[in-house]
Design brief:
Length: 220
């Protein structure tokens, strides 16, 4: 790690977006990428970091326990849940038809996107219908499997599908279904001074279009 580098703890869904943004920033950033639920677990365990990007529902408890600073928490944006197919595949873009016509559907078994997907299936009444077609896979597995033609569909955050080679986004879960995955940015209690510069750079409105193109949408 570079001396004085800002230590960023971030979820897998933002790996490619951050990989494109951070090299252009005028500060050194050391990034650690983990599964979404692992970010709050590591923060709670005292893992060293300066800035964390995590789901907002974890923030109050971590602040109360002294693992996050009470000030400086901001809403970074929301990531829609989406459906990916192998590039060149001919499929409908109507979500329920896409799901019910698929032979196999892969999702991340241990990630937030997987739990969000299963919850959505419950709400639209398709969990039982699709039960024997669902394939829970490790992190990164769904997009690799669909690109290789091993499954029909991959369920993943839009940020993941947008950067996946050999995969295209066939449909996006509508916002009204409650499947968007919100992300907040927060500081460690003793964050290095560069943490504020990193937050300000990531929150810069001039980056909104670039963020949206990568699959992350700013709060309304």
């Amino acid at each position: 790690m570079s001396a004085g580098a800002v230590r960023l703890l971030a979820p897998l869904a933002l790996r490619d977006l951050l990989g494109g943004l951070l090299p252009d920033l005028p500060l050194a950033v050391e990034t650690e990428i983990v599964l979404n639920p692992e970010v709050p677990r590591r923060a709670a365990a005292g893992h060293p970091f300066d800035v964390a990007i995590l789901n907002p529902w974890y923030v109050p408890e971590l602040v109360a326990a002294g693992h996050l600073a009470a000030d400086g928490v901001v809403a970074l944006g929301r990531i829609p849940l989406a459906v990916g197919v192998r590039a060149g595949a001919s499929v409908t873009d109507e979500l329920e038809t896409l799901l019910t016509e698929a032979e196999t559907i892969a999702y991340t078994g241990a990630g937030t996107s997987g739990a969000t997907f299963l919850g959505a299936l419950d709400r639209i009444g398709l969990r039982t219908v699709l039960a024997d077609r669902l394939r829970p896979l490790p992190a990164g597995g769904p997009v690799r499997a669909v690109a290789a033609g091993e499954v029909s569909l991959a369920i993943a955050p839009l940020t993941t599908l947008a950067a996946a080679p050999g995969v295209v986004t066939a449909a996006v879960f509508p916002e009204g279904l409650g499947t968007d995955i919100p992300q907040s940015l927060a500081f460690a209690p003793a964050a290095r001074p560069g943490a504020v510069r990193l937050r300000d750079a990531l929150m810069d409105p001039a980056r909104d279009a670039e963020m949206a193109a990568a699959g992350l949408y700013r709060p309304a």
